[in-house]
């Protein structure tokens, strides 16, 4: 009986050993599985890393929260500044238009003054030439009288007369034929003396 009892615990110990060996094997398997899972997870993390890098490269958009009253006050301030800007723009446009009008008027006045100056200068030149040529009219009359007479030197005088007339023509002074009873024209004629006649107009 005693021998049989001793053998029984041996059997139980072998069972325990088997259980222990199983648990060891299971632990090894578990550790292997966990290692595999870790390797898989690490691979996944490695695969996901580029995406994380891309996300890091992008700008982060942060949502801002504002109070409604603050937004209303800001909106009103913007409206007021916009209104002031519009008023300033209208004022500046009016000033610009007034300066433009002044500039146009000054330009027109300058052009008119330049025209008047040119006209006055031309008139002065004409008057000066006229006064100079007028001083030669007595010489012209002397030539005419000498040529109308019976002078021996008439041919020589004719040459001087022709030369004198060519000088007058150069300055656009030509003799005007005036007949008796012609109407007096203030543009071309100059009265040297006057005689009253009833049959002629004033």
**What percentage of residues falls in helices of 4 or more residues?**
over 70%
- The whole-number mean of residue pLDDT values reads 75
Tally of helical segments: 4
Dominant shape: rod-shaped
Order of helices and strands: HHHH
- Radius of gyration, CA atoms, in whole angstroms: 64 Å
Q: Please report the total strand number as a whole number.
A: 0
Name the structural class.
Answer: mainly alpha
Low-confidence stretches: 1-12, 45-57
How is the topology of this model organized?
Blueprint: H1 2-57, H2 68-134, H3 137-148, H4 154-170
Helix pairs in contact: 3-4
GO molecular function, one term: protein homodimerization activity
Family: Belongs to the GrpE family.
Region (Disordered): 1-52
Provide structural commentary:
By secondary structure, the chain is mostly helical. It is built from 4 helices and no strands. Among the domains are: 19-59; 67-135. The protein has helices at 2-57, 68-134, 137-148, 154-170. Helix 3 runs antiparallel to helix 4 (154-170). The longest helix is centred in the middle third of the chain and has 67 residues, at 68-134. The protein is rod-shaped and about 170 Å long. The relative contact order is 0.02. Residues 1-12 and 45-57 have low confidence and may be disordered.
Summarize the structure.
The protein is mainly alpha-helical and 202 residues long.
Descriptive labels:
mainly alpha; 4 helices; 202 residues
């Amino acid at each position: 009986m005693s021998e049989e009892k001793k053998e029984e615990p041996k059997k139980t110990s072998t069972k325990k050993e088997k259980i222990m060996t199983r648990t060891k094997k299971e632990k090894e398997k578990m550790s292997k599985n966990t290692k595999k899972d870790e390797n898989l997870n690490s691979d996944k993390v490695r695969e996901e890393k580029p995406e994380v890098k891309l996300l890091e490269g992008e700008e982060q958009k942060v949502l801002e929260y504002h109070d409604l009253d603050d937004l209303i006050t800001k909106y009103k301030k913007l409206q007021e500044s916009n209104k002031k800007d519009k008023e300033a723009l209208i004022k500046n446009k009016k000033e610009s238009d007034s300066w433009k009008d002044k500039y146009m008027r000054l330009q027109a006045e300058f052009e008119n003054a330049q025209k008047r100056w040119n006209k006055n200068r031309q008139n002065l030149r004409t008057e000066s030439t006229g006064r100079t040529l007028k001083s030669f009219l007595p010489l012209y009359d002397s030539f005419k009288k000498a040529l109308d007479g019976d002078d021996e030197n008439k041919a020589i005088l004719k040459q001087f007369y022709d030369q004198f007339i060519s000088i007058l023509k150069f300055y656009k002074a030509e003799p005007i034929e005036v007949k008796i009873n012609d109407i007096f024209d203030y543009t071309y004629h100059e009265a040297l003396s006057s005689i009253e006649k009833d049959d002629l107009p004033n």
